[in-house]
Structure formats: structure tokens, C-alpha cells
């Protein structure tokens, strides 16, 4: 989010990204150990959420954010073949919702606590090592 604010608009973001890449710096919000060569499905969902929220609010600043994010995505795909990760679209969603930047990481992490606690409980029940890439076996396709 700080990068988007620093950039100001879509041309500014493209410039910033190109400058950083020329200096061999990493661009925040891109790359992922697992989803390196395709879009993280959670990022895609948040991208759609951002567009829907902005349309609902009719907010011109939000519309600019949508255009900026798309430009950044296009530049990174063309230059590095990298796709946005979850954080790239979570940040502007939180911003449009009016959440202070310093709360972004705690909010993201709060959603993880149920899963982390479940792992602790499972570990206690069957004290054997298990791998971090778990296989989901629960119900699918549930409506919110
Ligand atoms: C998430 C992350 C740590 C995954 O790293 P990784 O799986 O170890 O991937 P690597 O560090 O091996 O990178 C592979 C290549 O992609 C490049 N790359 C990866 N992420 C990049 C990024 N965000 N910007 C520019 N280049 C990137 C690396 O420079 C490397 O290129 P090289 O082979 O020419 O050296 C990494 O993508 C990153 O630092 N992203 C930016 C920070 C970020 O968004 N963090 C939040 C993620 S939850």
C-alpha cells in the first residue's frame, strides 16, 4: 500500500516499478513460493472484491487504485513473468475499507489463527511430524 501511495497514479507506479527492477530490487506484492508462475487464486478473488467495492462506493480514488493495480500487474507480468500475490490486492481492499495500514498484517494474521490452533491440536492428538502443504478434505463449494 505504501508503494501505491508513493507512486500516486498508474504512470507513477509503472515508473517506480521499472526503476526498482533496474536496481534489482524486489517489488512488494509479487511472487510466491507456490504461485510463482500463475495468479494466486486468493489474489484473483481480492481483485474482484476490490473492483466490486469501488463500484459500490463510486469512489474516484478507488477507481484510480484499480487502474494502478492493473498497470502494476501488467508491467510485472511483461517484465518478470511474475503474478500478484495475495497482499497485492489485500492492501487496496483494506484501504478502500478505511482500515489503517498498520492493522493490515494483524488482520491478515487473525484469519490464520484458527488454522494454526487446529495444527497445534492435531499435533497434540497425533504427535508425528506432518508437512506444511496439507490436503484439504473438508466440504467444498459452500455458499457464504
Ligand atoms: C514471496 C517471495 C519471498 C517468494 O520468493 P521465492 O519463492 O524464494 O522466489 P525466489 O526468491 O527464488 O525468486 C525467483 C526469481 O524471481 C524474482 N522475484 C521473486 N519475487 C520478486 C519480486 N517481488 N520482485 C522482483 N523479482 C522477484 C527473484 O529475483 C528471482 O529471480 P532470479 O532467479 O533472476 O534471481 C518473493 O517473491 C518476494 O520477496 N516477494 C516480494 C515480497 C512480498 O510480496 N512478500 C509477501 C508475500 S506473502
TrEMBL record:
<comment type="similarity">
    <text>Belongs to the citrate synthase family.</text>
</comment>
<protein>
    <recommendedName>
        <fullName>citrate synthase (unknown stereospecificity)</fullName>
        <ecNumber>2.3.3.16</ecNumber>
    </recommendedName>
</protein>
<dbReference type="GO" id="GO:0005975">
    <property type="term" value="P:carbohydrate metabolic process"/>
</dbReference>
<keyword id="KW-0012">Acyltransferase</keyword>
<dbReference type="InterPro" id="IPR002020">
    <property type="entry name" value="Citrate_synthase"/>
</dbReference>
<keyword id="KW-0808">Transferase</keyword>
<dbReference type="Pfam" id="PF00285">
    <property type="entry name" value="Citrate_synt"/>
</dbReference>
<dbReference type="GO" id="GO:0006099">
    <property type="term" value="P:tricarboxylic acid cycle"/>
</dbReference>
<dbReference type="GO" id="GO:0005829">
    <property type="term" value="C:cytosol"/>
</dbReference>
<comment type="pathway">
    <text>Carbohydrate metabolism; tricarboxylic acid cycle; isocitrate from oxaloacetate: step 1/2.</text>
</comment>
<dbReference type="InterPro" id="IPR036969">
    <property type="entry name" value="Citrate_synthase_sf"/>
</dbReference>
<keyword id="KW-0614">Plasmid</keyword>
<dbReference type="InterPro" id="IPR016142">
    <property type="entry name" value="Citrate_synth-like_lrg_a-sub"/>
</dbReference>
<dbReference type="InterPro" id="IPR019810">
    <property type="entry name" value="Citrate_synthase_AS"/>
</dbReference>
<dbReference type="GO" id="GO:0036440">
    <property type="term" value="F:citrate synthase activity"/>
</dbReference>
<dbReference type="InterPro" id="IPR016143">
    <property type="entry name" value="Citrate_synth-like_sm_a-sub"/>
</dbReference>
Amino acid at each position: 500500500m505504501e508503494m501505491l501511495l508513493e507512486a500516486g497514479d498508474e504512470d507513477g507506479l509503472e515508473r517506480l516499478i521499472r526503476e526498482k527492477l533496474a536496481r534489482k530490487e524486489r517489488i512488494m506484492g509479487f511472487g510466491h513460493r507456490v504461485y510463482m508462475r500463475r495468479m494466486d487464486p486468493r489474489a484473483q478473488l481480492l481483485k474482484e472484491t476490490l473492483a466490486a467495492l469501488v463500484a459500490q462506493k463510486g469512489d474516484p480514488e478507488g477507481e484510480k487504485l484499480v487502474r494502478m493495480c492493473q498497470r502494476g500487474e501488467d508491467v510485472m507480468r511483461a517484465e518478470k513473468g511474475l503474478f500478484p500475490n495475495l497482499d497485492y490486492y489485500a492492501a487496496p481492499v483494506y484501504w478502500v475499507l478505511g482500515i489503517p495500514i498498520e492493522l493490515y498484517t494483524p488482520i491478515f494474521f487473525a484469519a490464520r489463527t484458527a488454522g494454526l490452533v487446529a495444527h497445534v491440536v492435531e499435533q497434540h492428538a497425533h504427535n508425528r511430524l506432518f508437512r506444511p502443504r496439507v490436503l484439504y478434505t473438508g466440504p467444498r463449494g459452500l455458499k457464504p
